[in-house]
Give the backbone structure.
Amino acid sequence: VKGRAKKEYQMKKCILLMTILAIAPFLFASGSQESTGTPILSVTYGEHMSEFMDPAIEKFKAETGAEVETIVIPQGVNADEKVALDLAGGIATDVFIMDTYRVPEFAEAGYIKDLSGYTADWSDYQAIHGGLRDVCNFNGGVYAVPHQTDVRMLWYYRPALESIGLPGDWSPRNWDELLDAAEKIKAANPSMEYPIYLPVGTKMGEATTMQGFYMLLLGSSPEENDGNRLRDRGRQKWIGKSPAILKTLEFYDTVFNKKELSNTDIYYTPDFWGDARISMASGNTAFMLGGSWEYRRFLIANGEPETIPDTPHELFGWTAFPGSGVRGAKDFTCISGGWAFAVNEATEKEDLAVKMIKTVIEPDFLGPYLANRGRTTTSTDITEMDIYKSRVYLKETSEQLLPYTTGRDTYPGYSKVSLFIQQATEAILDGETPREAMDLYYDNLVAEFGEDQVLDLTK
Amino acid sequence: MVCILVVCSLWTVTVSFTNFALIGKAAKNPEFIGLKNYYNLFRTNFLFHSIKITGLYTLFSALIGQSLLGFSFAIILRQPQIRFKRIFEAMFVISWVIPDIVISFMWGAFASKAGFLNIILSPFGAEPINWITTKPLLTIIIANIWKGTAWSYMLLSASLDTVPPHLSEAASIDGASKWQTLTRITIPYIYQSILVNLLLITIWTFGQFALIYGITGGGPGNATKVISILLYKEAFESFKFGYGTAISIIMTLIIGGFACIYFYFMKKADNHV
């Protein structure tokens, strides 16, 4: 028995040694190229960007001799949150994509590099619209390079409009017309669950603030002294209470409670974006407050080719989102965000990282991707490309919405303000009155920033 | 192990007294803010609401639903006339081993307006409704009962195996009814196991996240925002880590309180024996 035990022990030792020898090459493989002198640059980007990132990375590798390690964020994963958590955890890559509204907070946290030293003679950077470049600047520094922007509008399902005798290219002139149409559609199509799809609640995150709340807020009341915004840029304070905020929350109350123009489940499902698009494609939604990227998503949800047609689609249409109709308020509203490339403050390969961004934003790579996907460019050079100019949808959205768009109040602390807005809309779903929801928002702001930093414009 | 626990606990308690955030100025230079995180938690209704929702969820899905059903099945399936016991057991265990997030997708479809739940109920004249919207708390409670009853069944079934048959036989000879045998012999005999089961399912259910987040995301509104979802949203969506850790401390204290109560009863039962 003793002899057998000894034999088994030796056998185990032998297996262990063989296992170690077998896996050793893999364990050390990751560091081998770096140790032989070939630099490795790591990059994070979204799955849908592979179309232009892959060839751009090949060119980068050929020109620099460096290797590239890619982290591709799968479709459906919140890239904004992932990047923020990677940075906070110290595991972010050298170069990454980021939502432009995070720039001030990432810069303040010391997560992203100031690229000012590289921009003076960088022609593709200089070709970016000034206003869009400004969104990525903070305290005089250039912290990110925006590569695509967007516009927001009102999407509609043409057959739903036709079901109540409206033309398929109808445009509401104010909120009341929109609500009336949605009510009539609901009466004509009792099984329709979302006559108006209005992003709401905390699970939808920034979409609630931007696609929903801000689109309403901007047109809710006259824009003097930033009365229709979340921040008074002149006085440098957050607006906690205002007639505009109240009117916006009243719209939420009307849609979800008073007129019951939308069920609430779709904003909380595991795949809430996928469900929203399927709902639109299947005629379960009549109107949807959404962004310019949605067109392609609707086509995919409807099982059609992804290419956006140059002629009006038989099912999906869009129009500018109307203002409230209050005297002095905007006739229609639009707000834009966008995505940018940034460099990790912790990188030791700053020059290579900038070279990577320079390569991937070259119009030859980026232009066809944006044109094919119906995404709005930040670059005047790309606007002039034939492939971009030939796309009717991009031309129309760029001409009709882009000149009038605005951005968010991306000052430090905006993320929290945005969350408080989402909570206020959620309070409406809980049955609180618009005034109570506004009080909640105000109290949250005061607790976060202090009373001297928050304005009450209702007094 | 203990060292890691102590260090992590101390770190968590310390962070809960700071404004530490994952982004912004407070990520680089967090400041000590005393009890402000706790003050802000108790200032608004969010925490109390989440505690209430979590309490109801735990009470009805775990303490009443899972344990009562689990115990009932354990008793019923012991009866000699019950056939296909193994098939029933396999069904229980399958629901228990499926990951929470998969179950959440299943229930998302099951409880939707066009889902199977409405098809089952339609012969009884029930109008199809979207259960996730109209009865969100009830939906997640039922989902958790379905998921977790197997644990109570397995634990209590094993405990029932330890009850000596001669006790119930003697009671039967003395003229005790089945109910009397159950309440005066069987339950007192497995009392410790019942308490252990209640302790474990309370701890698990109170901190449950994936199942609820997957089905309702804490909504609609705040209807199913249990403490774990509140914590997640504050710490990882709004990146207020200090605030999030304050919530985690309160959550730990509540669960610790429950554990103490159970341990008290266990000790009392021990002394009684």
Notes: Chain A touches chain B through 42 residues (CB under 8 Å).
